[in-house]
Amino acid sequence: MTFDQRVSELGLQLPPEPLLPPGVWIPFEWVRVVGERCVLSGHGALGLDGGPAGPFGRVPSEVSLEAAQESARLTVLAMLGALRGALGSLDRVRDWVTLNGFVNADAGYPQTTAVLNPASDLLLEVFGEHGRHARTAIGVAALPLNLPVIMSAEVIITP
């Protein structure tokens, strides 16, 4: 079974590239391919229209652990959508190398790894052994758009 087929079998829907407000320009690429390396810029949860998906706020005072975990899963789906758009197919992914997660956390919040665990689980569900990755889960004081989670990654791809 291919990775694209696995996404379909799991009933997952991938959003399009992030929808930017009119007149907004970004000076970077969401997905940067350099040889066999593919680096994904920081992504947040997206709706199926490409717009930011809530909830918004700090974990856990404004966003529950469970809601933040769902945001982490939606963030991975946004990353997979960006990868599919850039590569033409998720089947070009050979291996996930790193997943770097940032959690909009209250000071001293110790469960940032718990927030990101569903994201790692989803990569393993879709990619099996090829989804194994090193990971960082850092709590930060603020994130763009007041999102609870933002993630970046690096994958190895086939030419």
UniProtKB/TrEMBL annotation:
Alphabetized CDD domains for the sequence: YjgF_YER057c_UK114_like_1
Database matches in InterPro entries: Endoribo_LPSP/chorism_mut-like, RutC-like_sf
Pfam families the UniProt entry points to: YjgF_endoribonc (PF14588)
Domain named Endoribonuclease L-PSP/chorismate mutase-like: residues: 57-147
UniProt signal peptide: none
SUPFAM superfamilies, alphabetized: YjgF-like
PANTHER family per record: ENDORIBONUCLEASE L-PSP_CHORISMATE MUTASE-LIKE DOMAIN-CONTAINING PROTEIN, ENDORIBONUCLEASE-RELATED
Name of the protein this chain belongs to: Enamine deaminase RidA (YjgF/YER057c/UK114 family)
Organism: Mycolicibacterium moriokaense
